[in-house]
Amino acid sequence: RCLLNDFKLSPEIPFTYALCRADRDYKTVMRATVRIKVHRRAFYYIINVAMVMVIICSFILVAWVLHPAALNDRFEIDFSLILTAVAFKLVLTGMLPPVSYMTMLDVFVLVCFLFLSVVTMSHAALPTFF
Question: How far is CA 60 from CA 36, 80, 81, 124, in A?
């Protein structure tokens, strides 16, 4: 699904065109090619995806407030936030247009998953240091 209001014309050369004329089999064939350069408006995705993901990931820092011996409580927070991030990613797949390459937004979401995983592993390794 791609809506036209998601895009804006590029400020530099917004379009190019080419006119071609060819003689084939005693016929004159005309061809016009127009290319329009557009940019996707990203503000909606920055607010509704990136900021929500930052908030979800920042909530994992709340687990550091708990006592180091309260591992069950820490893991409860960690895995709840991981499940929340996975559910949010599933919602994103229905919201974003399907493409065959990694976008910057996909990379950002993967970095957030990596952050959640590293913090959860650090909570698992915490009892070995105390």
Answer: 44, 9, 7, 14
CA–CA dist 68, 75 (Å, integer): 11
What kind and span of H or E run contains 20? strand 15-24
Task: Name every residue whose Cβ is closer than 8 Å to that of residue 126 and which is 6 or more positions away in sequence.
Answer: 68, 71, 74
pLDDT tens profile 86-128: 999 999 888 887 889 998 889 999 999 999 999 999 988 877 7
Predicted local confidence at residue 37, as pLDDT: 86
Q: Tell me the C-alpha to C-alpha distance, in Å, between residue 93 and each of 38, 48, 97.
A: 23, 13, 8
Report the alpha-carbon distance of residue 121 to residue 63 in Å, rounded.
13
Which residues, at least 6 apart from 4, have a Cβ–Cβ distance to it below 8 Å? none
Count CB atoms within 10 A of the CB of residue 120.
19
- Contacts for 53 with CB less than 8 Å, ≥ 6 apart: 85, 88, 108, 109, 112
